[in-house]
C-alpha cells in the first residue's frame, strides 16, 4: 500500500507542476499507468473469481464465469488468446510500475 501511495504521489505531482501550455503528452505516462492498473485489476479479479468457483463449486458458477469472460472479451474486441496475452502483459507492466517504488 505504501508503494502505491508513493507512486500515485509521484504521478499526481507531475500533473500539478505541468506547464500550462503543454500538450496532452505530459499526461501520457499517467494515462498508461491508469489503463495498465485497471486492466491488471480486472484480470486479477477474474482470476480470483475462478479460484473461488474452483474451491466452492457453486451451482451455475462455471456457466456464469464463461458468460462473463465471453462478454468481457466481446466488449474489448478480443478473442480468448488476445485477452490472455493482454492480461499477461498488463500484469507484467503493473509489476514493473510497482517495483519502481520498491525499497531496496
UniProtKB/TrEMBL annotation:
Domain of life where this protein originates: Bacteria
Keywords, sorted A to Z: Signal
Signal peptide range: 1-18
UniProt key word Signal: yes
Protein name stated in the entry: Unassigned protein
Source organism of the structure: Escherichia coli O104:H4 (strain 2011C-3493)
Amino acid at each position: 500500500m505504501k508503494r502505491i501511495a508513493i507512486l500515485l504521489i509521484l504521478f499526481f505531482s507531475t500533473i500539478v507542476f505541468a506547464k500550462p501550455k503543454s500538450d496532452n503528452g505530459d499526461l501520457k505516462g499517467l494515462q498508461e499507468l491508469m489503463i495498465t492498473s485497471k486492466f491488471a485489476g480486472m484480470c486479477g479479479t477474474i482470476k480470483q473469481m475462478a479460484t473461488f468457483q474452483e474451491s466452492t463449486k457453486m451451482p451455475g458458477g462455471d456457466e456464469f464465469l464463461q458468460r462473463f469472460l465471453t462478454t468481457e472479451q466481446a466488449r474489448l474486441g478480443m478473442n480468448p488468446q488476445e485477452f490472455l496475452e493482454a492480461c499477461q502483459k498488463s500484469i507484467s507492466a503493473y509489476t514493473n510500475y510497482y517495483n519502481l517504488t520498491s525499497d531496496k
